[in-house]
Amino acid sequence: MHVPDGFLDAPTSIATGAVAVAGVGLALRGARRELDDRTAPMAGLVATFVFAAQMINFPVGAGTSGHLLGGALAAVLVGPWSAVLCISVVLLVQALLMADGGITALGTNVTLMALVGVWVGWGVFVLARRLLPRRTSMVVPAAAIGALVSVPAAATVFALLFAVGGIAPVDPGKVLAAMVTWHVVIGIGEAIVTGLVVASVVATRPDLVRGALPALEKRELEIRSPAR
Amino acid sequence: MKQRTFLALGLLVCLLVAGVASYYASSHPDGLEYVAEQTGFLDSAEDSAASDSPLAGYSTDGVDDARLSGGLAGAAGVVVMLLLSTGLFWTLRRRGHPQDAEDHADSEDHTDAEDHADGRS
């Protein structure tokens, strides 16, 4: 979902740039609470993994493809503040090094994928976690549901931005309908990849999964020994 | 699994995904590009100012073989990502007493590489 330069007009790009700066600024403060000697290297690995995974476009039919956005995945693994920074670094490296996503569109891409993707993914994850039984294994479906919703949410925000500041004279309603339809399908891929990755980490090192902390605390009270 | 092992395995996965598996990724346009084409605003896209980058478009300048060119670009991206993001998170992290977090987070006078070697459990 990398927006190239030219799709949105200057005022819209400046506005999303300001939103992105504010969001990343808050995340730089918030992430301190999530990061310590143990989780900081993990956050670096998660950001790197999202970069790698975004290179894998999977076909979703009719000559279209999608790739992981990774906002929900990163949030569940390392916490939402750090996740915002993870995805922002990915987008920065992609824009500057790979020319993937425009440079004037960097604020738009950070807003869509790092802010909307992460916070919607995390919000839905927390909600789902609350409704599901409090077990570490339940973090997996909760993460998948968060991932599923985060993709069409980001697509919707793009369509709204396009309605406000799209350069081309195209019916915004059509763009919204098409964006949401395709990104619901891509969201299923996002949910599968997110579920698989979270499941692998929960199986090997549940203590490194931020979203599993409440379930782990409960387990530590009931059963013999903590995970580490 | 020890954390050091976990991180090393994770890095290996990243290198394999970006350096090898990426060759087999779908080359169809992604959701946004497809919608832009269908609804007719794809033409408003402009070339990025970074399109002269030696790694632009996930291919390495001067390497003709598509598999090698994409693999090298992916692997280079993984290395840059790891250094940049781990450096950032290591600088931001809380250390020692919680109340020290604010003071330390702004200071940049520590050595990343050394901290690194010791910090992993």
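The radius of gyration of chain A is 18 Å.
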